Amino acid sequence: MKGKINIRAIVLFYVIAVAFRFAAVKTALLEQVNDEYLKILLRGIGPAVGAVVSFAVFQIPSRLSLKGIYNSFMLPFALYWALPAAFTASVYYLHNGRFPIVLMFTVLVYGLLEEIGWRGFLQQQLKLLPKIYSITLIAILWFSWHLNFDLNTSNLIFFGIIFLGSWGIGKVYDKTASLLAVAGVHSLNNFFRNGLHEAELFAIAILLAMWIMFIVWYDKKNGFTATAKHSRLK
């Protein structure tokens, strides 16, 4: 295996990510914050802060990109942010009689803050490992970061979702190198804060199918160009 993994950078990243998460969900610190949307963002800011600090302290070149392999910022924004926000807000409206657009974009930004850490930093730092090891380690660290260690069926299912997410979202990042793309995929489950029902699951399935088909189509259509752009972003 060529090169080596910067373990100290990963440790620093994770300590900061967990410290921010602990302060947000295990202390009374956010009780002074009245804005619910700001509270949501502060609960997820740790991975982004940890990544930025680790990049700076260890002088790691940051290749974080919102647009990734796409020529325009607007394409991934429209496809992975505006579309799911409008789609899920419509489903929300059918159940609750209102369009929570601000909540939708808050959830997307929350997903972006996490993905700067989990995919933009950690996945890239672990890319020298065999894929299954990298996915498993990211899943364990991501699950543990939530600081919910209750031994119950719900948590076991949640770990399964985290593991599948580490694989699936990781594949999207490998294909697109776009933080907007992985933030959109990451946010699918978080859109529906009151639980998943038949309509919500259908909406998620539709969005996932559309994204997968687009990624496959774009890859085939652009082939060499997309691969070359992705290589420069790695």
Structural description of this entry:
It is a single chain. Helix 3 (46-57) packs parallel to helix 5 and helix 7 (153-176) packs antiparallel against helix 8 (179-186). This protein is mainly alpha-helical and 234 residues long. The model has no long low-confidence stretch (mean pLDDT 90). The chain has helices spanning 7-25, 36-43, 46-57, 74-96, 101-125, 131-145, 153-176, 179-186, 198-233. It has one domain (65-233). The radius of gyration is 18 Å and the shape is globular.
Index terms:
234 residues, mainly alpha, 73% helix, Rce1/LyrA-like_dom, hydrolase, transmembrane, protease, Membrane protease YdiL (CAAX protease family)
Helix and strand arrangement:
Elements: H1 7-25, H2 36-43, H3 46-57, H4 74-96, H5 101-125, H6 131-145, H7 153-176, H8 179-186, H9 198-233
GO molecular function, one term: peptidase activity
Keywords: Hydrolase, Membrane, Protease, Transmembrane, Transmembrane helix
Organism: Dyadobacter fermentans
Summarize the structure.
With 234 residues, the chain is mainly alpha-helical. It has one domain. The chain contains 9 helices and no strands.
- The average pLDDT is 90
Parts with pLDDT < 50 across at least 5 consecutive residues: none
Order of helices and strands: HHHHHHHHH
Count structural domains: 1
The level of helicity is: over 70%
Radius of gyration, CA atoms, in whole angstroms: 18 Å
Number of strands: 0
Secondary-structure class: mainly alpha
Sheet-strand content, in percent, reads under 5%
Distance between the termini: 17 Å
Question: How would you sum up the global shape?
Answer: globular
Q: What about the largest sheet?
A: none
Continuous helix count: 9
Transmembrane segments: 40-61, 73-93, 99-116, 128-145, 151-170, 201-218
GO molecular function, one term: peptidase activity
Domain CAAX prenyl protease 2/Lysostaphin resistance protein A-like: 100-192
Pfam families: Rce1-like (PF02517)
